[in-house]
Specification:
about 30% helix; about 325 residues; single chain; about 25% strand; alpha/beta; 6-stranded mixed sheet
């Protein structure tokens, strides 16, 4: 079974320097790569009341996520026909925090109904402004903003995590014991019996191999998969390879391929993430970005595990 994942997050490498985090803006002197065919439709601003660093990273993540709905977006203060901003508020929700953002088109009457996105998270994730939280907020806000500007989604978004799993991101966190129709959750059916080893990643420039390896282990472990260090009886294996092929002197094609092998060593399926990226950024540090790439791919790995475990014996 083959999944093709459009690695939209890779575009954000254009905004990363050696010490930058994913979804972090850089100075205006850094000219990001952009296709001449792109037509900017709207600019996203950091939500008011949100910590500055977190807000700017969310705006960048939203610009990428909106592209998965066919909306070409950039980050303010860039010029665009439509400017969208938001106001954040938080409230306690049991043992978690609910982050609400009211999104509005700037210049429209205040009486206009806002597009509202709500995301629940752990307090520590909000305090640390984790990359995973930024991605979740962006995934939940993007379809609402697209609707706000008159572009309601009429198709499944081609965002990294969603297209891998084949489902949309719900407004509220999903029950880990439930799954999309036709998909049996790995954790619910096999509990701690599913063991997976992540093999050493090969082919990535800079520290990419190490960051992708640790990122995939963390992503699978957070899904209640038993991640082991050595192969053994009943152990599945995830193999990752990376290639960076120059397109011209500034841009290259980055391909990350993940293959899931069953305990007998047979291929169950693969996930491929591919996108053009600036060569200089791809050769910089993958810290943080490796987690985003691996988390997006891990959803496809979980689906492949379900396929293997639910096949008739």
């Amino acid at each position: 079974m083959r999944h093709v994942v459009s690695l939209l997050c890779c575009v954000m490498l254009a905004a990363c320097t050696a010490g930058s985090r994913p979804f972090e803006t850089v100075s205006s002197e850094a000219a990001p790569y952009r296709s001449p065919l792109d037509k900017v439709e709207l600019a996203i601003g950091a939500p008011r009341n949100m910590p500055r660093g977190m807000g700017s990273r969310l705006a960048a993540a939203l610009a990428i996520e909106l592209q998965s709905y066919g909306v070409m977006a950039v980050v303010q203060p860039a010029e665009a026909p439509v400017q969208v901003g938001g106001v954040m508020s938080t409230r306690d929700a049991g043992e978690s925090i609910e982050i609400q953002i009211d999104w509005r088109i700037e210049g429209k009457p205040a009486t206009q109904e806002p597009a509202v996105s709500r995301t629940r998270t752990r307090g520590e994730d909000y305090a640390e402004a984790t990359d995973k939280l930024i991605s979740r907020i962006a995934q939940q806000a993007a379809p609402r903003i697209a609707t706000l500007i008159g572009r309601p989604p009429s198709f499944q978004p081609r965002s990294p995590g969603q297209i891998a799993a084949g489902v949309s991101v719900p407004l509220e966190p999903a029950d880990m014991t439930t799954a999309a129709p036709g998909v049996t959750p790995v954790a619910a059916t096999t509990e701690s019996q599913v063991k997976v080893m992540v093999a050493a990643i090969t082919g990535a420039p800079s520290d990419g191999n190490r960051q992708l390896y640790s990122g995939m282990r963390r992503a699978l472990g957070s899904s209640k998969i038993v991640v082991v260090d050595t192969p053994g009886t009943g152990t599945f294996t995830v193999v990752g390879t990376v290639s960076l092929t120059p397109i011209d002197e500034k841009v290259g094609k980055l391909v990350v391929k993940w293959v899931l092998k069953d305990p007998a060593g047979q291929n169950v399926g693969d996930i491929e993430q591919s996108n053009p990226v600036p060569l200089a950024a791809a050769r910089g540090s993958w810290a943080g970005f490796g987690d985003i790439v691996a988390t997006a791919a891990s959803e496809g790995v979980l689906e492949l595990l379900n396929k293997a475990l639910n096949q008739p014996r």
